[in-house]
Amino acid sequence: MKNIVLSVFLILIIGLSSCTKLLEDDFPEFNDDWVINNIMIAGDSIEVEITKTTSVNGEGNPPVEDALIQLMVENETFELSYDENSATYKLNQQIETVKEYNFELFDASGEIKTSFNQIIPPSQPILNIEHIDVAGVDDEGVSHPAIKIEVPNNAARDYFYVNIRLLKRSIFEFEDEEENRIEILNIEDPILLNEGVPFPLFSNELMTGNSQEILINYTTNGASSSDGGPLIANKYPLVVELWTLNEAYYNFMKQNYQYENSRYPIIGSGNQAAISNFNNVEGAYGINAGYSFVKTDTIYPSGTENYFNQ
Fold this sequence. Notes:
about 300 residues; mainly beta; 2 domains; four-stranded antiparallel beta sheet; about 10% helix; elongated; DUF4249; DUF4249 domain-containing protein
C-alpha cells in the first residue's frame, strides 16, 4: 500500500512539474505619450498641464517643459507661457462663456501634437431654493436634512448638465475645502437616479416644462437630541453651488466614477474588467472640459440664524 501511495505522489510531482512555464520578461518598449489636462472654469485664467506617461515603475508623470501652445479666440492669437512653479502653461486671460477657444499644441521641434477646442456654457440660475430640516430618518431613527432646488429647463437643447455641491459654512473652517463638503446620501430623486452615480450629477434628459425641482438629501455626520427626544441631524449654515457643465465634463465625471470603482474590484463581486478613464484629446491622453457656476448666499437652516455670533 505504501508503494502505491508513493508512486501516486511521484506521478503528481512529475505531472505538476511538467506544467511549469517561465513568465516572459521581454516586454515591449514603453511610449512616453503626452497627457494633457485642460479644465476651464469661467472666470478663472487659462492653465494647461502637459505631462508624459510613465511605466508602472516610474515616479510620477514628468512635466513637458518645452511645448508650444497657441490659442485662438475670436480671431485673436495668444501664446501660453510655461510657469515653473506650477509646472503648467498659463495665460492671464479670464475665461468667458459662449466664446470658442481653439488650442494647438506643438512639441519642441515644431511638430503639431494635437489640437482641440472648447466652449464653456453660461451658468444657469437657481430659480428657487428650499431647505428641509427633516427630510427622512434612517434605520436607527436619526433624521437627515435636504435641499430642494429649482433649475431652468430648455427643451430646445438636447442636454442641460449641472452638478450640485453643498459647502458647509462653519466656525471651524478647514484649510482644505473638501473638509467642508457636506455628504450627499440616499439619492431618491428620479432625475438624479437616472444618472446611476452616487453624487448629484444630472442632465435634462427626463425634464419636462420650463423648470425642474431636484431634491438632494444630505448629512453633516452628526446628530443630537434634547430632553431625551429623537436624534436630530446637526445643521450648519451652508451655501449651494450650481455647476453648468459642458458635455465633456459631464461625460468625464460619469466615466471617472466607473474608472475609480473598477481599479480595485472586490473579488467575487461579478464583472472584474477594468474601465478606462475618460479621454477626449486626439493623439494624446487627457481631458479637455470645463464649466461655469453660480453660488448662493449663506443659507441658514432653522436654529442656525445666530451661528456665527457664538
